[in-house]
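Example for tutorial group B:
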């Protein structure tokens, strides 16, 4: 996890009154890095003038 992201996360948790346990930030950091990488891939797609339409497929949701 980037240092700035870690500092921001700590500040947000402190503001909410949450104190993460030992190892929580490292585990969450891995998830956050994966999420950010996926977002970067989505943001890199050039849609030009295409209209986007979100869809919902209930069979693909996890329970």
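The residue assignment follows.
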């Amino acid at each position: 996890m980037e240092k700035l992201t870690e500092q921001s996360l700590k500040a947000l948790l402190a503001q909410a009154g949450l104190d993460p346990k030992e190892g929580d930030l490292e585990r969450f950091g891995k998830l956050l890095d994966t999420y950010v990488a996926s977002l970067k891939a989505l943001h890199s797609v050039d849609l030009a003038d295409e209209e986007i339409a979100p869809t919902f497929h209930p069979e693909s949701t996890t329970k």
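The CA atoms of residues 56 and 62 lie 13 Å apart. Compare this with the pattern of hydrophobic and polar residues in the output above.
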